[in-house]
Write a structure and sequence with these properties.
Elements (H helix, E strand, L loop, with lengths): L1 E4 L4 E4 L7 E6 L10 H21 L2 E6 L6 H10 L3 H18 L15 H13 L3 E4 L2 E4 L15 H7 L15 E5 L14 E3 L1 H13 L3 E7 L3 H16 L4 E7 L2 E3 L2 E2 L10 H4 L5 H9 L7 E3 L1 H25 L11 H23 L4 H21 L5 H18 L12 H15 L3 H13 L2 E6 L2 E6 L1
Helix pairs in contact: 1-9, 2-3, 4-6, 4-7, 6-7, 9-10, 10-12, 10-13, 11-12, 11-13, 12-13, 14-15
The structure holds one RNA strand of 75 nucleotides.
Length: 471
Amino acid sequence: MKLFNTLTKQKEEFVPLEEGHVKMYSCGPTVYNYFHIGNARPFILFDTLRRYLEYRYGYEVTFVQNFTDIDDKMINRAKKDGITVSELAEQYIREYFTDAAGLGIKEATVHPKATEHIDGIIALIRRLEEKGHAYAVDGDVYFDTRSFSQYGKLSHHKLEDLESGARIEIDTRKKDPMDFALWKAQKPGEPAWDSPWGKGRPGWHIECSAMAQKYLGETIDIHSGGQDLVFPHHENEIAQSEAATGKPFARFWLHNGFINVNDEKMSKSAGNFFTVRDIVKQYDYEVIRFFMLSAHYRNPINFSHELMDQARNGLDRVYKCLENIQHLKENAPDVAGPGEVQTEKALEEKLKKFKEKFIEAMEDDLNTADAIAALFSMVREINISLAAVAHPSANILEHAGGLLKELGGVLGLFQKEQEAGVDNEIEELVNQRQQARKDRNWKLADEIRDRLKEKGITLEDTPQGVKIIKN
RNA sequence: GGCGACAUAGCCAAGUGGUAAGGCAGAGGACUGCAAAUCCUCCACUCCCCGGUUCAAAUCCGGGUGUCGCCUCCA
């Protein structure tokens, strides 16, 4: 498949370095709060990429996503909550898994934590020091940016340009303003670990370099994250990793666009900040996932109530189709009747075409918007065919529903199952209504339907009998 | 100041040289006891503007306008 590589600014054919095995590293959350929809986008997106690589090529994907469990934000939040940093981390790692599971994000192969890899981090910093790429000052250790000639190759910046625009305060202890911390000396009251430079804690960027190397080796296939991580985070990761190993750190760099709110960047200071946990009070997790995948991942998307409504309604259309299939299956003949064979055969052909369209879209830099369009076309054709046939065969129903779920599954969508059967009370009411309809007692029939509606049961009368939908 | 992205219908969104996908919303119709679901029809003579290249441009080139992002913790 083709993937847009930030490094080369081009779509390139992706083939893993090691045959049949893909090594992916995706930057995970800092666990100081519930994650927000901005975080959710890369999680959902790169989970989808992983699913697709597994589905289409049968690759074994080793997927690493870290938890940043020590940094300024962690320390400040823990202080505010009156708990330790590790308690804070534990709490929000748990919450991460709750939301992630809801969003259909598969667990990574490994979810390493920075604080559990201090040894590896120190070893990496030492290696950089030995090679003359790092220097210690008063217990801090900095990366010597000027020592890495390729600095800026990912973000396509020149070091000089960055410096001229630098808004950071000049730290006179640093050799160059662009030098960044690999290790930070302990400040009073902060968690700290022993190191050759005294007590302290790792800088932010170094953890990813160290953990990626530990679990995936010196060169990985795909490294991904949000667009804002291109600089400085990923640029710095490259500098650290490649200065240490002399090998390319990642072959493909993938970055997703941002989520805006009213066309403005979502940020805490602007107060337009939405956690996934908040949104699920109003919309299913799946609506969020569907919403994220309905645009191309590199484009910015807006978030609003209206757009979530649109996403929900679109998602409903697919589920309605699946419901219909399920309902028809209940009394379906094994094979199509005479005169219906042709229609079903034609549908089979169309299904095949839509699957090809789906794959084609995904092959082109993970164009999930186009892939979803193919699924909608499929839904329409299924609806048309099933309405044209008096009694669709179990065979075609199985096929159509199965494919919709199969391809939906690649996107992590459409897997919700309606539990079958209703309790006796409901069944009795449905039967009463059926009798009332037979008696042409519409008033009673409608009354019962309304009563069931209040209980969260929707009835639809179809040519194949009454359809019971639980909300 | 430097670097970059984007601009397609009421809304969302694909398409990147061959004559505008798909979804949501809306209108009309079919079906139905009524609904719901579903289907059919309609809904961008045109893709921010102006030039240029070409037989042919939403798509390529130049210029302009607008919006946003990065250069500082940030997905």
